[in-house]
Amino acid sequence: MDEHRENAEPLEHADRPPELRAAIAEARSVSREQVLAAWQIHLDHVREQLEAGWRDTIDKIFDERFSEVETRLAEGFERAVTSRCNAIAEQNASYVRSTARRDVIDWLNQTGRRLRQSETRDVWIHSILDAAAEFCGTAAFFLVTSKGLKMEGARGARTSGAADVDIPLASAPAFAGAIESKETVVAMGTAGELSQTIASLLGDGSERRVYLFPVVVRQNAVAVLYAEPAADSIDVNGLELLVSLASSSIETTETVTVRTPAGDLVRDIGRAPAAEAPKPAAKPSWAELSKSEQELHLRAQRFARTQVAQLLLHRVNQVRTGRASHSLYRTLRGEIDAGREAFRQQFFENCPSMVDYYHLEIVRTLAQDTVDVLGPDYPGPVVR
Length: 384
Hints:
CATH class of the largest domain: Alpha Beta
Structural class: alpha+beta
């Protein structure tokens, strides 16, 4: 009915001629088709625009979402790689530590066995020098005799063998200090410190530091191991451990007869106590101290070790900072001064033979045998 009404002519035009009515109907049909075509074109255009916009939106969504996914994957991958690398690094570090520990233990066993099983004094001394060469550039071994010092051999020096000459301790104050204190001494390698004879035997060392490690048996320094760094590198701890092994091997082989032209090894080395050597200072040797004085010296040594250990335990960050900046004394002035004063009051003032063990421990442990790291304002040992 609606279509009939739409196609029906208005009644007021019913009187038009048939030809006119036909033309109008045809024009109306054509116009309708054109409008429908235009509408279709518009719809297609709109559809294209919508589809294009939808694709852009979809692309944008995918870009954003996959960018987030990519970031999370990259972060997760980095964490996984880092965790795996850390695990591998820890495994490698653990293996290296285990290997190094095993190597050190093997080295200790072999060195100790060589020293204990030495058949002659020369073999024993050569074993020490061979081991010392692993930790320094130049090593030499000196026996303490009733006439002073006698060089028994060297490694890495101009003179590699023994020197058949007696060197008075009075001419070698650095050696005398190591023998008297029974502690490691660091000195400049000048003829004034080592003696002209030793300087000529080992070469000019006036521009470098040398290290003297006393071999102590029953509170007597019976020998001294001399060491120079190799390209400014020296393992002081390793050399001190070697000297300890040497001392122990003398003690453990005391009942073994090791014949040499001069007698057996232990008696030949041990028969020259520090008390018989010339003394550069007025202080008595250990053998000349009374029992109470010896106990006081031992307490002073323990006090010094404990005080310095407390600094390392409770002020480790300051110690590292001071070492790095060569201002260790300035960084820990309060603590070091307090320890110096306590040592002076408890031990130094009341014992004329007392050695400044606190200073020696500061240099050996806190400064790692490098006096320069204490700084130019470090006051040095306590003096009377």
